[in-house]
Design brief:
The complex is a heterodimer of chains A (419) and B (225). With 419 residues, chain A is of the alpha+beta class. In chain A, 39% of the residues lie in helices and 20% in strands. In chain A, the strands form three sheets. Chain A has a nine-stranded mixed β-sheet, sandwiched between helices. Chain A starts with a helix and ends in a 5-residue tail after the last helix. With 225 residues, chain B is α/β, with parallel strands linked by helices. Helices cover 32% and strands 28% of the residues of chain B. The longest helix of chain B is centred in the last third of the chain and has 14 residues. Classes of the chains: A alpha+beta (419), B alpha/beta (225). Chains A and B meet through helix 9 of A and helix 2, strand 5, helix 7 and helix 9 of B.
């Protein structure tokens, strides 16, 4: 290979190309999710890949905004590749979908782009699938989306997954009156589950009494309904938030997925965005979450139509890393390789076999005999076919030699082949 | 269930880390002439992984190790996204700005660009940004003290324990950037999936660490916040 050819084969950092079996697995996963979401009565949206930068920046936190790919169009407007679907869905819900009956149930599957260092299962271009349930602020809506997240991980055959379910409304209620700096210090220490740092942040904020005790305990409040007791006793908006989470949990028990769900009050990521429940799905074998989601009741209003919403997004490449079994489906070999031919009857038979669902490769390089059989074998196909007598009969060849077959006989025999 | 994997750092924190686990009753047979990098604990569902200190946060962020022990200087410099549930009270050191004595008292804010040699480019950059100083960071991998002596850099940012190395090279400390100690880090997913085991191990470590040891200096923590 010359240097020039090598260079031409290079890819920019952070993108990947999928071949054969891997491509098939990705498409299978997408199909499984599309099918699942449809059965929960969610409708697909296909938003554009790029939009105006300032539209996509709505509701994106500083980190996501920094990670966006931007470029100019010829009028000098700044465009950006989407780094997330939720903002686009929010825009669509607030504008073109304004007269649709509520709640709206939408799903999406596609690439998102983030200028970040690639990690396991997340390149700079990666595939997200997710749902948004818009126009319903009820425990039933929260529970439906969490239950659907669990169903999605099941549909992808992710083994032993777990969903950590938190409540941003509780943390917000506990910290509502704090100055932004104090709040952010407390949030970061909680998010890092760093008790030493959290103590100092609570000191710095001058917090004492039961509120301090509850905040100091949040990183360790992980478990079942019992972790909500303290917050329930707190009263006010804090108790309301805890009660809401308890309702969602009980609904998840009724949905039959509570076995996968752990309540986790230290789950405080995405505070600028989430207003209610938040959740993350994890599974053994991957150090990063597979999916994350929650309730965000303030985003869609920024597009002019206040609507409550809850949803999640799932990283398909990450889910595939922990999918069981890890076996790759093989590149689908042709069932039959047919020698190149120009007789209508022969091409008619080929058309019919394809209609029956067989993969038929027709040679276009004029290969014959041993050469054609060797070519078929290299692709994992054991049979070749050629016509004789101007397309009136056929010879089926394999490693044992050739024999004459009728079209009917061929179809009967192909039914007995595997794969 | 797979064994819980603990990443230990080569270098100055290895010996106290091994001693810590041995106090808990583990054999922890890594280092000390053993060339094994991955050691199963015979009587427990635990295994130890020996890695370069800089690599410990990477192993833990990716989940290749569930937990790790690492210095806070290395952890902050790595910028890796991990939980940090327990500070260990050993391996204390300080990250400082240092230079030749004539640099003392200079107002670097009014210098167009100072050249700074360091093994900690990320922390150094953050420090100068916060101080409003324009600095050209020169990343090096060792023997930082040499840089100011031969005119490669005006200043250096490095960790000191006793300050003897600085002294031997005719350098003085100009400012303290942060104080550090050894800390336990935990992978974010392992913490969710193996919470009970991890909690048991953390509380055992916390108990054995002893009440007399200072857990962290408030001063150092304020600087991280």
């Amino acid at each position: 290979m010359t240097e020039r050819q090598t260079l031409r084969g290079h890819l920019p950092h952070g993108v990947q190309e999928l071949f054969q079996g891997e491509a098939a697995r990705r498409r299978q996963a997408e199909a499984a999710l599309r099918d699942l979401f449809s059965r929960w009565a969610y409708g697909e949206l296909i938003p554009p890949t790029f939009e105006y930068d300032d539209t996509l920046a709505v509701g994106a936190g500083p980190e996501l905004r920094q990670a966006m790919y931007r470029f100019f169009d010829r009028e000098g407007q700044t465009l950006a590749l989407r780094a997330d679907f939720t903002t686009q869905v929010a825009r669509m819900a607030a504008t073109k979908l304004f007269d649709q009956p509520l709640p709206l149930r939408c799903f999406y599957i596609g690439s998102v782009f983030r200028y970040e260092e690639p990690q396991v299962g997340r390149q700079r271009e990666f595939t997200q699938a997710g749902v948004e349930l818009i126009g319903a602020n009820t425990p039933a809506a929260d529970a439906e989306v969490v239950a659907l997240a669990a169903a999605a991980l099941e549909a992808l055959e992710v083994r032993d997954f777990q969903i950590n379910l938190g409540q941003m409304a509780l943390f917000r209620a506990l910290t509502a009156d704090l100055p932004p700096d104090d709040l952010e210090r407390i949030r970061q220490a909680t998010d890092q589950r760093n008790p030493a740092r959290l103590r100092l942040a609570l000191d710095a904020a001058g917090l004492a009494g039961p509120r301090r005790a509850l905040l100091a305990g949040l990183p360790d409040l992980i478990g079942s309904l019992e972790v909500l007791q303290e917050a329930m006793a707190f009263g006010g908006a804090v108790a309301e938030a805890a009660e809401r989470l308890a309702q969602v949990y009980r609904l998840l028990e009724a949905h039959g997925v509570a076995g996968h769900v752990i309540l986790d009050l230290g789950e405080v990521r995405g505070m600028d965005y989430y207003t209610g429940i938040t959740f993350r799905g994890v599974a053994p074998g991957l150090g990063w979450p597979l999916l994350s989601g929650g309730r965000y009741d303030e985003l869609i209003g920024q597009f002019g139509r206040p609507l409550a919403a809850v949803g999640f997004g799932l990283g398909i490449e990450r889910a595939l890393l922990v999918q069981t079994p890890q076996a790759q489906p093989p590149w689908p070999a042709p069932h039959l390789v047919v020698q190149g031919c120009d007789h209508p009857a022969c091409l008619g038979l080929v058309r019919r076999l394809r209609q029956e669902g067989y993969r038929i490769e027709m040679d276009v390089l004029g290969r014959q005999g041993e050469e054609l059989l060797a070519h078929a074998r290299r692709q994992g196909c054991r049979h070749v076919l050629r016509c004789q007598d101007d397309g009136r009969s056929w010879l089926l060849g394999d490693e044992k030699g050739e024999r004459a077959v009728t079209a009917h006989r061929l179809l009967e025999e192909m039914k007995t082949w595997n794969g | 269930m797979e064994r819980l994997t603990v990443a230990l750092p080569k270098g100055r924190l290895l010996e106290p880390s091994v001693a810590l686990f041995q106090r808990l009753g583990y054999a922890c047979a890594v280092g000390n002439g053993s060339r094994q990098l991955l050691v199963d604990e015979p009587a427990a569902d635990l295994r130890f992984l020996l890695a370069r200190a800089d690599d410990v946060p990477v192993y833990v962020e990716y989940g290749a190790a569930d937990l790790g022990i690492v210095g806070q200087d290395v952890l902050r410099e790595s910028g890796r996204d991990v939980y940090e549930p327990l500070h260990l009270g050993f391996g204390h050191c300080r990250l400082v700005l240092a230079g030749a004595p004539h640099q003392q008292g200079r107002d670097f804010r009014l210098v167009s660009s100072v050249r700074v040699a360091t093994k900690y480019p990320r922390l150094a950059r953050a420090y100068f940004l916060q101080q409003g100083i324009s600095a050209e960071i020169i990343p090096l991998t060792g023997a930082i003290e040499l840089a100011p002596r031969v005119g490669l850099a005006d200043l250096l940012v490095d960790v000191v324990q006793t300050g003897r190395t600085l002294q031997e090279n005719g350098l003085v400390e100009l400012a303290e950037i942060m104080t550090c100690q050894a800390t336990v880090i935990v992978n974010r997913v392992a913490h969710r999936l193996r919470l009970a085991e991890i909690r048991r191990l953390l509380s055992a470590i916390e108990l054995s660490r002893g009440a007399g040891e200072q857990m962290l200096t408030a001063d150092c923590q304020k600087k991280f916040l």
